[in-house]
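Structure in, sequence out. Go:
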């Protein structure tokens, strides 16, 4: 009984694929190619999901478009290039390292460096603040207190 319950929970925890049966190609080889290519394409609405994982309308359109290109005889590269020409490099989960995508690749590092620099300046300014100078009367009183405290 426990094994069955565990199996049900594991099934529920698997990712739900958004590919509808009506989208799937009749040819299993073409469908396998479409699924493989779909893992490389980002849903531009959801941003961190592949087009296979997304329920967004645009992801549905991209899945249909991809399958149309494959049925028309495009190679994998041609189908990807067609979609990239329409939607830009951002549609790729791993965009190429080029001048146009430099910010995509280096943006997180730049944000991290800017934050670290800000923390360093903050700590320097906070820790480097000098104690206010004490007056001669305060220094004399401090000396008397220290002499009284020592045995």
């Amino acid at each position: 009984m426990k094994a069955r319950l565990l199996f049900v929970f594991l099934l529920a925890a698997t990712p739900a694929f958004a590919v509808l049966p009506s989208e799937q190609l009749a040819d299993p080889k073409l469908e396998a190619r479409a699924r493989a290519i779909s893992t490389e394409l980002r849903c531009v609405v959801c941003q961190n999901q592949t087009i296979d994982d997304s329920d967004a309308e645009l992801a549905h359109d991209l899945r249909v478009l991809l399958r149309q290109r494959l049925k028309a005889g495009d190679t994998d590269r041609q189908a990807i290039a067609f979609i990239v020409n329409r939607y830009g490099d951002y549609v790729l989960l791993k965009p190429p390292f080029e001048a146009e995508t430099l910010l995509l690749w280096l943006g997180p590092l730049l944000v991290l460096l800017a934050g670290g620099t800000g923390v360093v300046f903050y700590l320097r300014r906070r820790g480097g603040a000098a104690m206010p100078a004490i007056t001669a009367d305060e220094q004399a009183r401090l000396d008397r207190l220290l002499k009284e405290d020592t045995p």
